[in-house]
Amino acid sequence: MADELTGLGVSPGVAYGTVLRMAAPPVVPADLRPEGDAASETAAALRALEQVAAFLDAKAAQVGGEAAGVLLAQGMMARDPSLSDAVAAATAQGDSAAHALVAAFDLFRSALAAAGPYMAERVADLDDLKNRAVAGVLGLPVPGVPEPGHPFVLVAGDLAPADTAGLDPSVVLALVTEEGGPTSHTAILAKSLGLPAVVACQGAGALADGQAVLVDGGAGVVLLSPEDAVVRQALATEQARRDVFARSSGPGRTADGHAVQLLVNIGADSGLAAAAMVDAEGVGLFRTEFLFLDRPDEPTVEEQQASYTRVFEAFAGRKVVVRTLDAGADKPLAFITVADEPNPALGVRGLRTARRMPELLDRQLDALAAAARRTGAQVWVMAPMVSTPKEAADFAVLCKARGLPVAGSMVEVPAAALRASQVLAGCDFLSLGTNDLAQYAFASDRMAGELAELLDPWQPALLELVRLTAAAGIEHGKPVGVCGEAASDPLLAPVLVGLGVTSLSMAPGSVAEVRAALAGQTKADCERLAALALAACDGREARAAVAAAVRPA
Ligand code: PEP
Ligand code: MG
Predict the structure, then answer these.
(1) Cα-to-centroid distance, 475 and ligand 2 (Å)
(2) Going by CA atoms, what residue is nearest to atom 4 of ligand 1?
(3) I want to staple 526 with a disulfide (CB 3.0 to 4.6 A). Which of 125, 334, 363, 497 is the partner?
(4) Can you list the alpha helix ranges (DSSP code H) found in 79-227?
């Protein structure tokens, strides 16, 4: 194996540690035959279940508190006598231990799913138990994010939002994935947790557990077994980089005082407290669908209101731009997403789900309005995946009818960028979702590592769509921000400002660096850099031209 792997650096920072791979859920070969008689197969399956239960007990003792209760309950499920009875019944029919476990869990699963929404939530726990027990019987690695009890570099094929919901940034040092592009959820998650990350990393699949690696999430390089001196030097350079931007504070401004609002992107509740501590003017993108992931049913208006209230209270007195549910495509939700859409990214996702289930959006807006009334945040609401001026205007009417005074549209579909002036005529602000805008402008799946270069936010065609949209804002005297991953690139931020955007919203960990980058350029510098980027032939050339012309910090 080469002594270095390269991929796309999607979240800057340097980390050194040992690799642990995320194992996929085990698949039981259809033709697996029992090795022994029914009694010995049953015994093997029950041993695996007991090992899982013992692991959960030990973990519960380690974590304590409320989390311990959840783990102990999961352990009790593994020891449930009716589960062992179902296993024994399956082996008596000639099933192998692994097949018997699958059959028994399937029985339980359907019973739970049918027992109402609360019990249906336990289905995910049950699947986790099954996968652990089956992996145990087959001698395969335990699926999911590993928990070795020490820090490590997580290596995976790709990470879905649900895989990483509980990922602990104090033990995961960096992320390296074989798949994924600059706007994939691995990239977004890594930035939100401040973890260095390299995606679309060729050869990552061959990395072995325990391999020492130095991950550079800015350069997109993974060094294998680096020498001590190299590690020391890289970590010292990283510290110096952090020291430079840690000194910046206050509202975003160019060197000549042109104001650019700096905001944070938030999703799951877990990062809320840390995001609220960041020196930013508020939230530019609250991805509400993260509250709904992993749920079999829609949260009630009261549950939603409680979640929104937590966010608004954390940002009391500041602006919070809430995006209504953006389900579908890479963020499927059990209770909304149509399973058999031939092309989900082009299907009924984002605001389009309101065509099919308008009451879902009504209930979300009701919950948002109630939470906004109870708290002191300045709540702005915007819809994802708006394509036409009419959609934007209709959405604004729905918001205003509930007393939500500021309603906007995301610009993620090229049609909305091309008609930005008409879209903005019917609402109060626009927010460019450059992740999806790149996906749709370049007809390139944002999860496809192979197409990462087309999804590069530096692509001049994408920047042209940003320019058109920002021009509409200038024409109407209304705000136009960027909340896609493009906003967190400190070299690209001055370009976006030069194109006319008025705010940048990004992962909390990127704010200080972007603020420092803007403070180094005047508004005229930003416009000059924007012209250079627009004139380039491709993303790589645009970045190089701007890097060469930028005023040094
Ligand atoms: C975007 O598409 O740029 C965006 C901000 O939305 P998401 O990444 O959640 O699709
Ligand atoms: Mg989007």
Answers:
(1) 25
(2) 433
(3) 497
(4) 81-92, 97-114, 117-121, 123-138, 185-193
Whether 118 shows a pLDDT value over 60: the answer reads: no
Residue 166 Cα to ligand 1 middle (Å): 21
Pick from 318, 327, 278, 20: nearest CA to 149: 20
Ligand 1: which residue has its CA nearest to atom 3? Answer: 433
Both tokens of residue 475? 């024409």
Contact partners, residue 23, CB within 8 Å, separation at least 6: 135, 140, 141, 142, 143, 144, 146
Question: What is the residue with the minimal CA distance to atom 9 of ligand 1?
Answer: 287
Taking the CA of 431 as reference, the closest ligand is 1
CA-wise closest residue to 33 among 41, 25, 43, 21: 41
CATH number 1.10.274.10 given to 38-138: yes
Q: For position 167, what pLDDT does the model report?
A: 76
pLDDT of 113: 65
Q: Which of 513, 507, 515, 518 is nearest to 195 (CA)?
A: 507
Closest ligand 1 atom to 434 CA: 3
Of all ligands present, the nearest one to the C-alpha of 186 is: 1
- Averaged pLDDT, 183-203: 84
CATH superfamily of 248-549: Phosphoenolpyruvate-binding domains (3.20.20.60)
**The pLDDT of residue 71 is above 80:** no
Q: Which of 409, 410, 411 to mutate to test the pocket of ligand 1 (most atoms within 8 A of CB)?
A: 410
pLDDT of residue 509: 86
Q: Which DSSP letter does residue 439 get?
A: H
* Ligand 1 atom 1: residue of nearest CA: 433
Model pLDDT, residue 216: 95
- Indicate which atom in ligand 1 lies nearest the CA of residue 483: 5
Ligand 1, closest atom to CA 183? Answer: 8
More confident residue, 192 or 319: 319
Q: Is 74 helix (H, G, I), strand (E, B) or coil?
A: helix
Residue 120 binned pLDDT confidence (cut-offs 50, 70, 90): low
Which of the residues are catalytic?
185, 483
- Encode pLDDT of 340-389 as tens digits: 788 889 999 999 999 989 999 999 999 999 999 999 789 999 999 999 99
Looking at the CA of residue 265, tell me the nearest atom of ligand 1.
5
Which helix (H) or strand (E) covers residue 148, if one does? none
More confident residue, 504 or 200: 504
- Strand-pairing partners, residue 453, are none
CA 319 to ligand 1 centroid distance, Å: 19
- The residues lining ligand 1, judged by C-beta closer than 6 Å to any ligand atom, are 285, 287, 326, 412, 433-436, 483-484
Q: Band of the pLDDT at 158, cuts 50, 70, 90?
A: confident
Task: For residue 198, count other CB atoms closer than 10 A to its CB.
Answer: 32
Residue extents of the structural domains in the chain: 4-23+144-243, 38-138, 248-549
Does domain 4-23+144-243 bear CATH number 3.40.630.30? no
Q: What is the whole-number distance in angstroms between the Cα of residue 363 and the centre of ligand 2?
A: 21
- 431-439 average pLDDT score: 96
Tell me how far the alpha carbon of residue 439 lies from the centroid of ligand 2, in angstroms. Answer: 9
Counted residue by residue, the chain has a size of 553
